[in-house]
C-alpha cells in the first residue's frame, strides 16, 4: 500500500496550488495523509476528489468547515499498521517522550505544524514523521513531502521529496 504524506499546505495563502509533483504523488497513492493547516476547504474538496483514500486532521490555522469536517486526531489501520495523525506535538525538545505517552497504541504518528521534516523513532518503537511543507519552506532549503509503503504491517521505503522549482 503506497502513501503520500503532506502537511502545512496553507493554500491559497502560501501558494496558489500544490506543486504538480505533489499532485502526481497524490493520484498515484493508495492513501493520502494530510497533517493539517489546509487553510481553505477547497483543497480538502479537491483531495477528496483526487485521492483514492484521504486521512486528514485540522491544524491551528484551520477553522469553520475544516474543523467541522476533520478531526483533531485521526487513527486508521492500514494493512495492520496503526497510523495516527495530529497537527501539533509541541516543541522538538521532549517530543519523543510526549508522543510515546500520548500515542502508546500506535505504530506511526504523522504530524505537522513546524514545516520542518522529522523522522525519528521513540524508545517504545513509535515512529514520528513530519513531511515538512510542500508550499511554505520557511527555514528549509526547499518545500518537502513524504512517500512511504505499508508492507505487512510495517512502514517501509520512507522517502522525503524536495519540491523542485
From TrEMBL:
One of its GO terms (molecular function) is hydrolase activity. Residues 1-151 form the Calcineurin-like phosphoesterase domain. Its EC number is 3.1.4.-. It holds the Pfam family Metallophos_2. Keywords: Metal-binding. It comes from the Bacteria. Its cofactor is a divalent metal cation. It is an enzyme of class 3 (hydrolase). Belongs to the metallophosphoesterase superfamily. YfcE family. This is Phosphoesterase. The lineage of its organism: Bacteria, Bacillati, Actinomycetota, Actinomycetes, Geodermatophilales.
